[in-house]
Write a structure and sequence with these properties.
Layout: E1 3-5, E2 12-13, H1 23-26, E3 49-52, E4 58-61, H2 63-71, E5 77-81, E6 87-91, E7 94-98, E8 115-117, E9 134-137, H3 147-156, E10 162-164, H4 169-172, E11 179-181, E12 187-191, E13 197-204, E14 217-222, E15 229-232, H5 240-243, E16 250-254, E17 257-260, E18 263-266, H6 270-278, E19 283-287, E20 293-295, H7 297-301, E21 303-305, H8 308-318, E22 323-324, E23 333-335
Parallel strand pairs: 1-11, 7-9, 9-10, 10-11, 15-16, 16-19, 19-22
Antiparallel strand pairs: 1-2, 3-4, 5-6, 5-23, 6-7, 8-20, 12-13, 13-14, 14-15, 17-18, 17-21
Helix pairs in contact: 6-8
Amino acid sequence: MAAHCNSAPLSCKPWRNRGPRPVSTLLPARLSPLPQTPFIFHSDRLKLSTCRWDKGVSAVVSEESAVGSSSSGTDAFKLTYLEGNSWLWDVSGVRILVDPILVGNLDFGIPWLYDAAKKFIKNFKLSDLPQLDCLLITQSLDDHCHLKTLKPLSEMSPNLRVLATPNAKSLLDPLFGNVTYLEPGQEYIVESSNGSKVRIQATAGPVLGPPWQRPENGYLVISPQGQLTLYYEPHCVYNKDFLEKKRADIVITPVIKQLLPNFTLVSGQEDAVQLAKLLDAKFIVPMKNGDLDSKGFLASIVRGEGTIESFKELLSKELPDAKVLEPTPGEPLQIPPP
């Protein structure tokens, strides 16, 4: 049964059902973008594996180094970008799948309006995933809570621990039996089979609808020994008051704005710089969540603003010691503790 947990230490109680929201009421509010490169995971191999995909892009995933880092007691983040809003994180052996879009295209159920495919990770199979400790969902729309992916994933792993925004309850409850819905400020400790524990705290993200609706989620992810903290929110929309007393060594954020006429879908550039400054970040990992092969009316009117290079220039003036680490889709980016 799905549960709502109040904070750590957690006391859980059933969450009241929220009715499903029609897509038509969601689209004008805030659509977020999508996925980028190739990779393959063999959980039965403990050796570094390298594969080549169509278009000649290489992808690397190391089970051995992930297990080794946790066994040695060293905090480390291994971040694999799966294009769009999707990630696989290995935090000292705790494996967290984030906002996965891994089966089919992203079309919000209305492909004439928007239909997007990944550019690099084309031949991925869910069976290629390693054993997961947690599924993390930030938002309730299809580009984060992708039912084409989540339905088969739930059939493969019905007891998978899921942490999510309460806005996704009507979508996740029919699929998974081990869901915890986190309001901003609440947290949960995820433990792996090897005993590593990662603390995840929800933060306030964008409001995808009328102003009175609860916000979607961002997350702070704290490594087992507390040496590293990661912050993730896929729209670069955040509550400054909530975050001003927080710190994050690693910030994953879009830096290129995605704009509709008179409307911002995804923020970035100056807002991303201010976010990094607010959290006193040491590393900024930019995500190109709009960089997809897309078609449809919406795709024709969305435009990008800014580049990673212009973001770096802005960042150097405000936070000169911070480093920008650009991920290659499908290739793990490892960030060790200081």
